[in-house]
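PROTEIN FOLDING TASK:
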Amino acid sequence: MKKILCATDGSHSAQKAVDFAIELAKLAEAELTFIHVVMSTAEEISHTYFWDSNVLGAANDQIQIELHEAMQKAHDRELEPVFCTTVPGHNIAKAIIDYAESNDHDHVVTGSVGRTGVSKVLLGSIAQQVISKAHCPVTVVR
């Protein structure tokens, strides 16, 4: 393992994935990148009736805080190199997979809330989609 990609969205399961990815990267002496998929871009929202730059700005601020906290945890564990990125995408799993593949990541870490039954069928599972379509090994943290 040389390059690990860790998907984060600020959720409880994503924070567990961040902690796990940091430890994995330390053990493997690998580069770590945190990724957050932004489902609605300013360009897309600006063409809607519900455009509100204050709300969009607050959402962007929250994303930056989450990424900063992940970076801080990695730096506290003396992990280097560590990177952060945001990517646009309506299909979160596809955005994660595409970024991992195009940037030569050889391992993906993601969280999972562990939905079962009807909620899994209706809502799908981002982790399951990443597992089934990724070009590299995937670790799911619960």
